Amino acid sequence: MENILINTQNLTKAYKGVEVLNIPELEIPKGQSFGLVGNNGAGKTTFFSMLLDLIQPTTGQITSKNIVVSESEDWKPFTSSFIDESFLIGYLTAEEYFYFIGDLRGVSKAEVDELLAGFSDFFHGEILNQKKYLRDLSKGNQKKVGIVATFIGNPEVIILDEPFANLDPTTQIRLKKIIKELSDNNEVTILISSHDLMHVTEVCERIVVLNKGEIVKDTQTSEATLEELNAYFGQEEMN
Ligand SMILES: Nc1ncnc2c1ncn2[C@@H]1O[C@H](COP(=O)(O)OP(=O)(O)OP(=O)(O)O)[C@@H](O)[C@H]1O
């Protein structure tokens, strides 16, 4: 019996009567690396935002470890995410921000430093000791900060919206390795949305395709998945 961590029931979101998401049921087991793909406007960010209680569902609900996310804050200590730059604090340096997140999650400065030391390749000398505010970092470097901040405090659930976008090819490869290592650890459930079919199939064991707010494919990743996805999105182009 799989240990279900995230469960959604009858989830819909509509704006002014227009439905943008409709997921009758979705279960995500503990430890799964879950990839969400879909064209622009398919509903990926909407789904993640509801998981994080940033927007309210029109109907239905999401539970994380049996906690209804819109009714209690108890899921927050074991969940971390980076959706966009609004998750950063522009007037802090990277170090200040990491320590701030550490404080929130009960992680000491020394432990934060220890974690950061493991990301020196990923940071490529452009994040730490820069005496620069986060708002003055490049988009890609801001993203690196946001992603690494999600690892502070050993969260059980990590949600990353388009983590590969804006990153240079070398950093994308490093990020894939980091995500693979995380997903090898079956304690961490990781949810990623991406437009990069190759990256997402490489790091996720399950791929869900959203089209106009509905799940049209839900598959365990195999050798054939990338080709199937390319065929699916190619055929969409013909329509
Ligand atoms: N506040 C809002 N008011 C009205 N419509 C909205 C609002 N927020 C999102 N939408 C609509 O919801 C739909 C889903 O958007 P969403 O951002 O979830 O898509 P996405 O799959 O993340 O797209 P992308 O790949 O472009 O990031 C879109 O049609 C979008 O215009």
Automatic annotation (TrEMBL):
Which positions fall inside the ABC transporter domain?
Answer: 6-237
Q: Which InterPro entries match?
A: AAA+_ATPase (IPR003593), ABC_transporter-like_ATP-bd (IPR003439), ABC_transporter-like_CS (IPR017871), ABC_Transporter_VariousFunc (IPR051782), P-loop_NTPase (IPR027417)
Superkingdom as given in the UniProt entry = Bacteria
Name of the molecule in the record: ABC-2 type transport system ATP-binding protein
Molecular function terms in GO for this entry? ATP binding; ATP hydrolysis activity
* Spans traversing the lipid bilayer: none
Under the heading Gene3D superfamilies, the entry gives: P-loop containing nucleotide triphosphate hydrolases
UniProt keyword terms in alphabetical order: ATP-binding, Nucleotide-binding, Transport
For this protein, the record's Pfam families field holds:
ABC_tran (PF00005)
